[in-house]
TrEMBL record:
Keywords: Hydrolase. It comes from Cohnella phaseoli. InterPro entries: HAD-like_sf, HAD_sf, TPP-like. GO terms for molecular function: hydrolase activity. This is Hydroxymethylpyrimidine pyrophosphatase-like HAD family hydrolase.
Length: 270
């Protein structure tokens, strides 16, 4: 079984996003410039360590490799052979880029989407520069734009999504970042590729944002925390393909890991 799991606000949490939790229950899992940035609960961390010995745990993140590598907690007692970074743009095998996937995805972007410059030009035309703080072109595949979220007008993201769709791109708002991503670069496509590599017959996937939806839709079982873009979009009228945790914040990770472990037991028994 493959357990493909988003990281930020699904498995690991900043202090801003974690919600109420006892300080003694926190395990730091990411450090940057000497400061702890992200955490898991002790229960979730121990469950992940156990689970990673039984299944293929595949971290699946929009972070680029350098940001992913900061998460030291994933290197301590957790077994990871495959990882997906750059929103599916790169597949790592034993920490190294899989060149076959790299070639396939870049050719797909060239053939199926407008250029990164064109997508960013559209964003700048629609956005107000006063609430755009910083831009980054990640892995020469997608854009991450830091914004003052509270100043984005109501309905603006829908307008951006509509305009981008005609260019073979999509968008997502996560925290303070707007992501612009070409359609061929998706977590779902990358997870499907890893599934073929491993020969796995079952995928359990978890994630909180619209950028996770493609992998949740292709999974055999899919779960999202009771917060985030997916919960806001589908939580009140879910179509049944994605189930949501009862808890939100950092405690949702424990519920997701318990569900993944239960699926694994069912698969083994079956």
């Amino acid at each position: 079984m493959i357990f493909a799991c988003d990281l930020d606000q699904t498995l690991i949490y900043s202090r801003r996003s974690m919600g109420p939790v006892e300080e003694s229950e926190l395990v730091p899992v990411e450090k940057y410039e000497g400061e702890d940035l992200s955490y898991m609960t002790r229960t979730a961390y121990m469950r992940l360590r156990e689970l990673s010995r039984e299944i293929d745990f595949v971290p699946t993140t929009t972070r680029i490799y350098e940001q992913y590598a900061r998460i030291h907690g994933l290197a301590d007692g957790i077994s990871i052979r495959y990882a997906i970074v750059s929103n599916g743009g790169r597949v790592l095998i034993d920490g190294r880029t899989d060149e076959q996937w790299d070639g396939l995805i870049r050719e797909a972007v060239r053939a199926g989407a407008a250029s990164g410059d064109e997508a960013m030009a559209l964003f700048r035309r629609l956005a107000d520069a006063s609430w755009v703080l910083k831009e980054r072109y990640c892995d020469e595949l997608f854009h991450a734009v830091v914004v003052e979220r509270d100043r984005i007008p109501h309905g603006w993201m829908d307008e951006l999504a509509s305009e981008l769709s005609g260019m073979g791109w999509n968008c997502s708002l996560q925290g303070r970042k707007v992501y612009l991503v070409p359609d061929p670069v998706s977590k779902g496509a990358a997870v499907r590729y890893v599934k073929e590599l491993t020969g796995a017959s079952f995928v359990f996937a978890a994630g909180d944002s619209l950028l996770d939806e493609s992998m949740l839709r292709m999974a055999d079982e899919a779960m999202a925390p009771g917060h985030g873009e997916l919960f806001r979009s589908y939580g009140s009228g879910n179509d049944g393909a994605i189930r949501f945790s009862r808890r939100s914040g950092i405690m949702a990770a424990e519920e997701i890991l318990n569900a993944a472990a239960a699926c694994n037991k069912t698969e083994v028994a079956g």
